[in-house]
Amino acid sequence: MASNMALSPRHIQDHANASSVRHYWGYADRVVPCTNDAGSCAYLAVVYNAHEVGMYYTGIIWATFGGILLIWAVSRHFARSQPPGVQIPLEEGEGVQEKGNTLARLQKAVPAYARRYLLPDAARPIFGRVTRTQVLTLLVLTGYLTIFSFVGIVYGKWVTPVKKMPGVYNTRTSIGPWSDRIGVIAYALTPLSIMLSSRESILSLVTGLPYQSFNFLHRWLGYLIFAQSFFHTLAWVLVETWLYQPQPTVAVEWIKQKYMIWGCVAMLILLLLVVLSTPWGIRLTGYEFFRKAHYVLAMIYIGACWGHWEQLKVFLIPGLVVWFIDRGIRFARTALLHYNFLPSGHMGFSAAPAKITFFKDEVSGDVVRLDFDHPQDAWDVGQHFYLMFPESSIWQSHPFTPLSQPVYGADSQRHSYIFRAKKGETKKIAALSAKRAARMDSHEEAHEGLMADAKLSVVLTGPYGERTMRDLPVDSNILCIAGGTGITYVLPVLLDLASRPQSIDRRMSLIWVVRHRNDIDWVAPELAILKRRCPNLRAGIHIYVTRASENADPTVPAVSEKATVNDCSKEIEPASSNSQSSSASLSSALSVHGVSKADLGLNHYEARPKLSTLVPEFINTTCRGRTDVFASGPGEMISDLRSIIAAQNDGGQVWKGEDRWDVRLTCDDRLEW
To answer: Do 228 and 186 form a contact (C-beta atoms < 8 A)?
Structure first.
């Protein structure tokens, strides 16, 4: 009743003397019959009718979202390809695969055709490094919401007298009900925005898409909510400070009301959320500040929205429930991973002690490798964990992809992670790792023969992300491309495939771009494993060194002396002089490009790989089957790959049975700029 009394000046209704009222979901009660002048009664009829229709529209919007998810889930269930390992690998020399039935060809041809036009980046200065598919989804959503923002409202103008003030008139227009409509839709979109930002995402369970793929829509849906809220506020400011009379009395009484104060607070918080979430805001304040501030401001925003219009809490409560469920599952995941038997024999929570390997790089940032064993079930290749380092901070965690291959059925799993120190938490961890590694080295020198490893406590949460190998056909050709520490995303793919029986016609290759030759030591054991298996897998591992020193001291070893005896960088051969096409011969399973001129025997060599040449060359040498490209690295590289791979797709050729033109890209796109 208090809210109705606060709204009585705004809606020119006398609730105190009302003979009866009609209740409206999400709005103030309506006095019936209307006892005002004809113009005011007509205006109130438009206001309440527009609100009632608008609430139906919010139901339609959510029903549409639910219907899309239902259709997606059903289609995904029936269209899922045959899992790897079920099909019998084809032997070399067997006949060309049959074209298959019409439905099977259609399921391949349509996505290939779509990738050709929708895979490249779209308007990068505006949207960042996202595909045209994501931008198209945003545009469709924006258009859909725009339709419901305007339809179902009677547009008109009513000039009504002000009581007890002869000659003074109010101008009432449909800008009021329109403003309320977009405000209601902004409230209705709040739970969706929170769902799109959830790490424990129900959207991922239904669609199979990793949670990070929804980050773009989450951010831009927030911008849409801000735009709706801004125009909602602007419209009512116009009404209350100009169209309603007398001024400034009406404006002063309006702005002092409690619901308006909370509305201003909500608008201010929403503005801060938008500014801090832009790429410029994140670069200015740092990602860690953005993440913490985002959580706090979002909760304050929901509380302010509740204070502004409590009647629409039906949309706010689900948003809060989704958020708390997300946080609860995160804590539960961590507890389940780390609640194990302690050395004392009792059960309890214990962090995992990780062995530290430190790689000094004062120019580009130090690199840290962590290795440890942990009792748990195997994750799927392509998934990642959030790592928290309690010795540094319990309030921060960062996503890292395990370099190690999961072993299904094992009681314990080997975790190996590599990350480069940049700013904030990773820089603190690198500094801590450097101190411990240096202390351990000096301890070993003082006590010769006593071997001990520097350790760092790690707390895991996960796994999260896409299961990249789940629906991979046995005849698919694999091209892995990585830049720097992005090797952790693609190398497990090759390690997993190398452990399986393979079709003799399957082509696999790795292109890894590093800055210095010693960077190969990061993953020396894993590369050694692949090198031993390369002849059987017909794979080529090509490593490009972009900053090879031309005046390096030849007496200095090219590889770190910390590397093990299996360090494959010691066994790697420089590319021969006929490698001008940036593609090494398969006769040399491992090759390093970009070393000194003396090693290459060339007067000039471009160390950076030309992906626009390498990718088509790889595809053209495949015998049968589609090609899957796995990539992780700098944003510029991912953007280039999207355009290159899009050009290699041809739906018409795939329809004819030429699977070579079916090329798919799976990339680590947790950052969009």
So the answer is: yes
Q: Which is higher by pLDDT, 97 or 464?
A: 464
Pairing of strands 663-667, 627-632: parallel
- C-alpha distances in Å from residue 154, one per residue of 53, 122, 667: 11, 38, 49
Give the pLDDT score at 98.
Answer: 47
| 455: nearest Cα among 352, 593, 543, 312 | 352
For residue 365 the two structure tokens come to 């940032």
pLDDT digits (tens, 9 = 90+) for 160-172: 998 888 889 999 9
Q: Please report, for residues 239, 314, 635, the alpha-carbon distance to residue 484 in angstroms, rounded to integers and kept in the order given.
A: 57, 48, 12
DSSP 212: G
Distance of CA 196 to the CA centre of its chain: 10
Q: Return the structure tokens found at 216.
A: 């773009």
Write down the pLDDT at residue 345: 67
pLDDT tens for 8-64 read 444 577 666 667 888 999 998 888 888 888 898 999 999 999 999 999 999 999 999
Token reading at 490: 């693609």
Give the Cα-Cα-Cα angle 439, 444, 447 (nearest 5 degrees). 125
Token pair belonging to 123: 């308007």
The rounded distance, in Å, linking the Cα atoms of 643 and 121 is 7
- For the stretch 14-42, what's the b/e string if a residue is b when 16 or more beta carbons lie within 10 angstroms of its beta carbon? ebeebeeeeeeebbbbbbeebebeebbeb
- Residue 313: both structure tokens together: 């809490």
The answer to whether 509 and 479 are in contact (CB under 8 A) is yes
Q: Would you say residue 198 has pLDDT above 70?
A: yes
Q: Output phi, psi for 286, to 5 deg.
A: 95, 145
Alpha helices in 241-286 (DSSP H): 249-255, 258-277, 279-285
Find out whether 115 and 201 touch, Cβ atoms under 8 Å: no
Nearest C-alpha neighbor of 486 from the set 563, 363, 400:
400
pLDDT band for 599, please (50, 70, 90 cuts): very low
Q: Domains of the chain (ranges plus CATH)?
A: 2-77+97-256+309-331 (no CATH), 351-464 (2.40.30), 477-550+561-667 (3.40.50.80)
Angle of helix 38-79 relative to helix 132-150, nearest 10 degrees, comes to 150
8 A C-beta contact, residue 668 and residue 401: yes
At 645, list the tokens: 């791979």
Distance CA 536, CA 323 (A): 49
Q: Is the confidence at residue 558, as pLDDT, over 70? A: no
